[in-house]
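User: Second chain of the day. Same drill as before.
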Amino acid sequence: QLQLVESGGGLVQPGGSLRLSCAASGFPLDYYAIGWFRQATGKEREGVSCISSSGGSADHADSVKGRFAISRDNSKNTVYLHMNSLKPEDTGIYYCAGKRAARWYKSLGVLDYDYWGQGTQVTVSS
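Assistant: Same format as last time:
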């Protein structure tokens, strides 16, 4: 069974940057599409960024386009979320999730993923 562990969250000032990591174990990450999601207090979980298992295709929510990037290093079994120009509204718990899928598959849908990490807190505040 795929296991995912997020890290890299913390407190950052508006305009700052963070890099989140999603480390996988249990299965080679090569077979899995990965998504990053976030959940703010009192709000539903939403898709932020996603990447296909090959790494050749990615997508981002409109709210983070131009500020966030997603990448993966299958040799390290890790997917990264690079967050720049952070805003207070980016605050929340960030989760990564995995789905065994075709090499081109990607999705920002919460219900499309089978394996979830425990989350890492990101707080953007001055």
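The chain has a mean pLDDT of 96.

User: Great, on to the next one.
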